[in-house]
Design goal:
The chain is mostly helical. 52% of the residues lie in helices and 4% in strands. Among the domains are: 3-65, lambda repressor-like DNA-binding domains (434 Repressor (Amino-terminal Domain), Orthogonal Bundle); 74-101 and 110-242, no CATH class; 343-380. The chain has 17 helices and four strands. The two termini are 45 Å apart.
Length: 382
Amino acid sequence: MDNLVISYNLHRIRKNKHLSQDAIAKIAGISRVAYRSIEAGSSSPRVSTLQNLASALDVKLVDLLTPVKALKNVRYRSFKRMNSRDSILIDVGKWLDDYNYLEEILDQKASYIFTGFQDLLPQDLVGEARSKYAAQMARKVLGLNGNDSIRDIAGLIEDNGIKLYPIKLVSDGFFGLSVSEYDGGPAIVVNVWERISVERWIFSAAHELGHLLLHLDSYDVDQVTEDESQEDEANVFASYFLMPEDPFNSEWQETAGLDLVERVLKLKSIFNVSYRTVLYRISEKLGKDIWPRFNMAYAGKYGHCLKRSEEPMALNPSYFHCGPEMLRANEPEAISHRNFVEDHLSRLVRLAVETEKISLGRGAEILGYDLIKMREIVSSWV
């Protein structure tokens, strides 16, 4: 028996049913320590124990033993070592299986608009120039006009054949990953932990789209270390995809009469990005001294400094002069989480439930709800 599969299935099912480890252990007639070891994957349970656990969770034994999709064509890097890496990949694989199953039974599979995109990129372009060109071409393929700002990147991604999975992971070292079209995708996973700004969620989605379009040959689940050049290229892609050069330059000139802080924050609101993404673009034109200038101006205007955040990753902390203890940023004039809402999977679940292709319980499992919560959602459908 595969301890990791059992571990993941126990954790997933228990969480979906909103039961504690102690409660499951008591119902199954085993100690809390024994249960925790099984769910952690550090011990091999007997079949009789698994049967008791399945009964306690009100599932079949096979539900605890069935492995989920083993992802291979994945780009999954993190800035810190993560003990949860394997469980995240299992979770994403299960999510992809469910998503693809619903698309198949409902005949609702969206066409991937970027198939063959790399063939559109000139062979002589490399690095930053290639990233900028790819961002421009991606916008054209999506039918975006030069001056269009992207108000709903989640919907834009999903409408064009890319599955989107907002996952909450308590980590400031992991912002997202992506799965190629050869492994059940294409799909983009974004960490929507509450302590990460919505602006960062949006940037992460664009960043992973950049990897899908620029670095498809680097999708290998066994590669865990960052390639700094590819990360820089994906950052440049995201910046120019979200803020095309001509509209950005135009807005920058039109706001020339405002003070620096108001000027930056206005561009932030226009393009739905972090203030740091705006500053990074400005620094390309005016130099890196724009960073301390902005922070001094902000502190003078509002009486406190902005803290250092993680977006984008190309900046040295020394540009911020408000003390080393300020490691995170509360995004000024932050946008709402409603600017990044995945809704395609929930729509598929509703359609499948209403046409009786899946049960209400199965729909709840796919969406990660308990049955009570699922019934509340169904009662609100109009």
